[in-house]
Design goal:
This protein is α/β, with parallel strands linked by helices. Helices cover 35% and strands 27% of the residues. The strands form two sheets. Strands 6-7-8-3-9-10 form a six-stranded mixed β-sheet. Strands 2-1-4-5 form a four-stranded antiparallel β-sheet, with helices on one face. The radius of gyration is 17 Å and the shape is globular.
Length: 222
């Protein structure tokens, strides 16, 4: 489904050049659940952002569904992200002033063909899938950390993406809550065949996925 071909990422300032990713070549098949591990600063999040079209490589190619993403302009990249990719972050990124249902609907607002009734129906369905339909009108401040992450996952899947990119989704949670979130992701992967790429520091979480990709100093460890 997604290929990185000899991807490099260099960050430059006036005085410093940092190689964040060094010739990364990786292929992830549709329906795989892959975890990415490595020490802090090794390039895990950078690689995830490049896969998610939130950042661009300095050199190399990102190919999704056999299409070179470099060939798309910014407008079409944004449309592809919105329609095919879902994102889950460690810090949830929920809007505290909005109830849960409105937070989940947000990605659909940017799809002009999706009307308000359909948005609400799909948001309710997504909350059903993560076991939080009963919290529809609660605000994020009224939820536990695990519940907030479930809302974030519902928001990621509401658009029925082919791939979810999760950056430390259990990182702010205790071990019990973390496993609950992992169980939700495993269920989505198993029942919906959703491709998932997840950055994690937790070896016990990573071992539950199909495959572990390890990075060290921007390079893939074979």
């Amino acid at each position: 489904m997604i290929q990185l071909q000899q991807v490099n990422k260099v960050y430059r300032t006036q005085t410093v050049e940092t190689l964040a990713l060094n010739h990364i070549s990786l292929q992830i098949e549709a329906g795989e659940f892959v975890s990415v591990m490595g020490p802090s600063g090794c390039g895990k999040s950078t690689m995830l952002h490049i896969m998610g079209l939130l950042d661009t490589p300095t050199s190399g190619k990102v190919i999704i569904d056999r299409q070179d993403m470099h060939s798309l302009d910014n407008k079409n990249l944004a449309r592809y992200r919105n329609e095919h990719l879902g994102f889950v972050f460690q810090s949830f990124h929920l809007i505290n002033d909005l109830p849960v249902i409105d937070n989940v609907e947000l990605p659909l607002i940017y799809r002009r063909q999706t009307g308000g009734t359909e948005r609400r129906s799909r948001a309710e369905e997504a909350l059903d899938q993560v076991g939080l339909r009963h919290r529809i009108q609660h605000r994020p401040s009224q939820l536990s950390g695990g519940q907030k992450q479930r809302v974030a996952i519902a928001r990621a899947i509401v658009g029925k993406p082919r791939m979810i990119l999760a950056d430390e989704p259990t990182g702010n949670l205790d071990s019990v809550m973390g496993q609950e979130i992992m169980d939700v992701l495993l269920k989505l992967n198993r029942e919906l065949n959703t491709t998932i790429v997840m950055v994690t520091h937790d070896e016990s979480i990573a071992r539950q996925t199909h495959r572990i990709v390890r990075l060290f100093d921007g390079s893939q460890v074979m």
